[in-house]
Amino acid sequence: MKKCILLTLYSLVMLFSLSCKKIDEVNPKDEEIPVELSGRWILQRMEFLNGQPPKNRPVSEDIVMKFEDEKLEKFEGATANNGVKGEFKHLGENRIQVVEFAYTLAEDTEWGNRFFSVMPNVNQYSVTKSKELILQSNNEKLIFKKD
After folding, report:
1. How far is CA 6 from CA 9, 11, 20, 65, in A?
2. Claim: this prediction has a pTM higher than 0.85
C-alpha cells in the first residue's frame, strides 16, 4: 500500500511539473510592437526635457513618418526637403533602438534639421489614447499625430 501511495504521488508530481512551463518558455520573444504604430504620422511638435518651451510644427512644413512593414521595425518618411528611411530594434517595454537612419542630403529647414538631430537617438515610444505617437530620446520628445 505504501508503494502504491508513493508511486501515485510521484506520478502526480511528474505530471504537474510537465504541465507547468516558465513564462519565458511560453513567450520567448520580446513584446510585439503594437499595431497602433502602423500607418502614417505627422510630426506636430518637439518638446525639450530641459525645460525649454516646445516647438510647434511650422505651417506647411510636414515631417511625415510611416511604419508599414510586417514587424513594424522599418520606417520611412520625408521632411520638407529630404527623404528619410531607417530601421529600429524593439527592446521590449516601449524601448527601441534606432539601428539605421538615413536621409538624402539636401539642405533642410531648421525644423527638419532638428528632427534629424533627435530621431537617430530615439530610445522610447508610446502611443496615446488620443492617437499621438511619442518618440523620445534622452533630451527631447517628438510628438506625432496619426494622419
Report:
1. 5, 8, 21, 64
2. no
